[in-house]
Amino acid sequence: MKQIVLALTLVMSGLYIQAQQKNSLSAGQWHGELERADGNNIVFNFEMNNKDHKPILYIRNAEERLAVDDIAVVHDSVFIRLPFFDSQFRAVFINDNQIKGVWIKRLADRNLVMPFTAVNTGTKTYRFKTLDKKPAADITGRWATSFFNAEHTRTTEAVGIFNQEGSTLKGSFLNPFGDYRYLEGVVDGDSLKLSGFDGGYALLFTAKIDDAKKISGGKFFSGVGAPRIWEARKNAAAQLAGNGSLLKQGVSPKLDFTFKDVDGNFVSINDDRFKNKVIIVQILGSWCPNCMDETAFMTEVREKYKSKGVAIVGLAYERTTDFTRSQQSVRNFMKRLKVEYPVLITPVAVSDPQRAEKTLPQLEKIPAFPTTIFTDRKGEIQTIHTGFNGPGTGADYEKQKKEYYEIIDRLLAAQ
Question: pTM for the complete prediction?
Answer without folding.
Answer: 0.90
